[in-house]
Each structure stands twice: as C-alpha cells, then as structure tokens.
Queue: 2 jobs
Job 1
Amino acid sequence: MDPSRQAAEARLLAAGHAREVADFARGIVGDSSSGVDAADRIRAARRLRLLSLQVLNWTVRAEVLHGTPWPDLAVALGRGEDALREEFEASTLQWARDHDADPASTEQSLAAAAALDAWYERHADDLLDPDTQAPVSSLFPPPNV
C-alpha cells in the first residue's frame, strides 16, 4: 500500500475516534442535570479526555504517514522532536505494515468511511459546517475500472 493510502487509513481512524468523542460528549451534556454522582461525572470526563487523545494520536500518525516533517509535528504539538519520534515513529510504521497485510482492510475501510459520512450528514449544521459530500470517503480514490 502506498503512503498516501496509509495516511488516509489513519485519518479514517482519527475520524472514527472523533465521532466517538462527539457522541460521548453529548451523553455528558445530557447528564448535566441528572442524579449522577461526582465520581461518575469525573470518570466520564476522564474517559472523554482519553477518547480525545486517541483523536490526537491518530491524527499525528496520519501526518507521519503523509510525510509531514518531524520538526513541523513537534512544533504543532509543543513537544521535542526526539521524544515525538520515539513515541510515534516505530509504532506508526508497524501499524501500517500490519494494516497492509490485512486483505480485508480496504473493504472494511470503505464501509467505515461511508458510515462516518452518514453520521456527519446527520449531524452537520447548515450554517457552521462546510458543504462537503462524503468527507471521509473522499479520502479514498475510487477504484480503477
């Protein structure tokens, strides 16, 4: 698989985690006036933070695979380049190799992208969100016929 496809696959995962963050955050808003105790509210907030970190981590992996220079990534994250490389380089490349080896990955990715597009369409705000058709599926070029 080519690096641009690998970057698209990682962006797909980031988008999936972003959907999970949005849906989970909606639940926290819904519990605002409920009888949930302090410990449960704090656990929910901690879980939201961890879910958000998954969005960040997969976004970084996608940029690594896209070829964004390490110094640019370090500046964007406010971290040292060496520490960033240590955290992301080997694991990102290993994920890409493993993902490439899965014969079902393309079909699964296209289905996941279509599901995220449908979710986006249901939740899009006409005034705030760009008028984008299939924003996630657009990561993947149509197959050659």
Job 2
Amino acid sequence: MNGPEAFPSELCAEHRAMETVLRRLAGIRADSGPGPDDDLRLLHALRELLDRHHTVEEEYLHPLVRRYLPAGGALADAAVHTHTTIRLLTDRALDRRLPPGERHHAIDTLLLVLRAHLRGEEDRLFPALRLRAPAEELRRCSRRVREAPPRNPPRPVWGLPPGTGAIAAVRDHLTGHDSGENGRSP
C-alpha cells in the first residue's frame, strides 16, 4: 500500500523498533536484574532510534499536523515538548552518576512516557491526519521520511541553550565526572 491508508508506515515501523527495545529493556529489569551494562546498551540503542525519529517527525510530520489538524500548532508544539521530555529522561537514565534507585526510576518513567507517546500518535494523530490531509501530502511526507538520510547529530544537552553542552563537558572533565558513553562528554 502506498496510498494514504498506509501513512505513515515508515514512522510506524520505527515505533515497532523502539517498542522492541522497550520490551527488551523491561524484560531485563523484570528478571533478576540487569547486568552492569545491559540496560545502558539498550538505552544507547534507544537513544539512537529516538534521535533520528524525532528529527524526522519534527521536519516532515509536524508541518502536516500544523497545516491540516484543528489546533495543529498546539498538537505539534506538545509533541516537540514530549520529544524534549523523552530526550531528558533518556539522558537521565544513562547517567552513571545516579544512584541505582534513581536510574531505575528514570528508566521506568521513560518507558511509561515513551509508550504513551507512541500509542497517542498511532491511535489518534496518524488516523486524524489520514482523514484530513490530502492523499498527495501524505504520500509526499512518506517519501520524505523514507528518503531522509541517517542522522548522527551532535549530542546537545537537551533543553539547555546552545553552547551549554560544551560548558557541561568542560565542567565534567575538570571534576572527573563521566557524562557520556566511554568516558567522553556529549
């Protein structure tokens, strides 16, 4: 199916990939407890999926939402806010400086917020767009999502002004804190 009824198959496929990681992460946590790096490995994989997915949604999906849905601007703004929250929760869950209880709480909160966000998009947002946006617009959006290049953007400190990441990196380096994977700051 390439018509509007298939929209947005590419984004839904990315949702399935994220849900697979979320299930594996929840499974590790439900077992006898994660190994020291199991949850971190999955969280890094999830963050990579999220980075591309959020960027693509913000570039291609949200303009359709703004244009064709009632209160579309507010819906797109709320989605961007949720994306920021998810990024912050992911960064917090990856913070090795947190005590285990706080990290577990951050992971649990991330699982809850991300699943609710994915469900909301698939149950309400995507069907509303299929009903209201012209078929050609939906096909164009799907094509753009499919053709979007893989992204490896620099890792900013989400929610902070530009340049703050560099300040945090210098601070962490000087204080000996590890704020990134493999001992590097983001």
